[in-house]
Specification:
The structure is a single chain. With about 80 residues, this protein is mainly α. Helix content is about 70%, strand content about 0%. It is elongated, with a radius of gyration of 17 Å.
């Protein structure tokens, strides 16, 4: 079993989806009227999800731009 985190296999689309989920959670918390003092753990969790989405999407896009995409190099090496 791999010791990688759950977000390690996501690509730019997956990163954007995680970012959208985090943003939607933050928006829902703000619009539901929950104050930060009352429910700080929910805001913290939603912020972490959004941050993970930003990092995954950004790193995936930078890797693709530099040409270091491991999935692409494996496909090229296997002749696909």
């Amino acid at each position: 079993m791999s010791r990688q985190p759950w977000w390690a296999g996501l690509r730019p689309v997956g990163g954007a989806a995680v970012l959208a989920v985090g943003a939607a959670l933050l928006l829902w918390l703000v619009l539901s009227g929950k104050s930060f003092d009352e429910d700080w753990a929910s805001y913290y969790g939603a912020g972490r999800v959004a941050a993970i989405g930003c990092v995954v999407a950004g790193v995936s896009l930078l890797t693709r731009r530099r040409g270091d995409d491991p999935a692409r190099s494996e496909a090229t090496a296997s002749g696909q």
